[in-house]
Specification:
With about 170 residues, the chain is of the alpha+beta class. It is built from 4 helices and 7 strands. The protein has a 4-stranded antiparallel beta sheet, with no helix packed on it. The protein has a 3-stranded antiparallel beta sheet with strand order 1-2-5.
């Protein structure tokens, strides 16, 4: 189901739910209460159907941090985005490579994968990519203008182990 259909369906369902609530407030009989419950159930079912199979596998959106930044665990290293600057092209775009995993590359399986990478330049989103389950490794390359930028931040999502980030300062 595409997003427009989902939004339309949710809007219609919400309108029906509101209509049912107004009826219940006026009458309040058992039939109205039953209709309201059926509308609620229908709305929940529609919302669940609108989630893609990919989205259903994304179960953790917790912001994660190192327990001890001086001594990161293998688990933490596996989820840390590594930012590497490449060369600048003739149009002044700098290549920025992001690999998920510092020393230990994150796995890519249908039930455990990096589902997105975002790149921020001084807190402004400049790059965003989503990955399908098991079909792409946690790696991306962006070409961005870095003139006047002081900090780059990479944010990644592991479908099972949450949101991880790292930053580098530019001179």
């Amino acid at each position: 189901m595409d997003r427009r259909k989902v939004v339309k369906t949710l809007g219609i369902s919400a309108a029906l739910l509101i209509t049912g609530l107004i009826s219940a407030c006026k009458g309040g009989d058992d039939k109205s209460k039953k209709e309201i419950q059926e509308l609620r159930d229908s709305l929940k079912e529609t919302a669940n159907k609108s989630k893609s199979e990919r989205d259903k596998k994304i179960v953790n959106r917790t912001e994660m941090n190192f327990q001890d930044s001086e001594n990161p665990t293998d688990f933490e290293l596996k989820h840390t985005p590594k930012i590497k600057l490449g060369s600048k092209d003739e149009l002044s775009f700098t290549e920025v490579k992001i690999t998920v995993g510092t020393g230990i590359i994150h796995p890519t399986k249908v039930d455990h994968w990096i589902d997105f990478i975002k790149l921020y330049a001084d807190d402004n989103l400049v790059g965003d990519v989503e990955f399908e389950a098991g079909k792409a490794s946690g790696y991306s390359v962006f070409k961005i203008k870095t003139e006047g930028v002081h900090k780059l931040k990479a944010v990644i999502g592991c479908n099972l182990h949450g949101i991880w980030h790292s930053e580098i300062e530019l001179s």
